[in-house]
Amino acid sequence: MDRFVVISGCSGGGKSSILNELARRGHAVVEEPGRRIVVEQRAAHGTALPWTGMEAFALRALELAHADHAARRKATGWVFFDRGIIDAASALAQARGETLTPGQFSPRPHNKTIFMTPPWPEIYQTDNERRHDFAAAVAEYQRLCHVYPQLGYDIRILPKASVSDRADFVIEALQRSGPASVEA
User: Fold this and answer.
1) Dmax over Cα atoms in the chain, in whole Å?
2) Half-sphere exposure of 136 (CA within 13 A, CB side)
3) Residue 6 in this model has a pLDDT that exceeds 50
4) Higher-confidence position of 178 and 10
5) How far is it, in rounded angstroms, from Cα 107 to Cα 109?
6) By the 8 A CB rule, do 8 and 116 touch?
7) Helix (H), strand (E), coil (C) string for 45-100
8) Residue 85 CB: number of other CB atoms within 10 A?
9) Residue 161 to residues 128, 137, 143, 165: CA-CA distances in angstroms?
10) Crossing angle of helices 54-71/33-43, nearest 10°?
11) Quick one: pLDDT at residue 14?
């Protein structure tokens, strides 16, 4: 759906900050499935965590990404996702040693333009939900930069700039591509 816009990229690259700014400006946003899963699993003493059960974690992320997508079908205007269906499917495919194909995602679940936060070591931090190191975050970024174009998406790398400037970059790029519609 063209109004469903994904902000993906390097873990710890500022996605959540950009989404918070877009929400502050009145846009609908969807939090990253992975962080929600980690909180849920830790509270339940579960094992579907990226550091103990990557395949189970990625499968749960894909389920949650599909549910997030379905829950916003009737929304109007841009809906911004902190990661999305392709991110989760890519993680699951990697965990299983599989390859994604464009036919798996027809119709395309998100806007053709994907905004990617590049690796930015100066702002990268670990926390309770992000335990992996910067090298793992960069490897994830490289995987996603490879997967999205193979599936027919166009990548726009976000500048290393203020949160406000990065949000402006996203909005301006989308405005140049046309208004958000309610059509798929």
Assistant:
1) 46
2) 9
3) yes
4) 10
5) 6
6) yes
7) CCCCCCCCCHHHHHHHHHHHHHHHHHHCCCCCCCEEEECCHHHHHHHHHHHHCCCC
8) 23
9) 26, 19, 23, 6
10) 120
11) 85
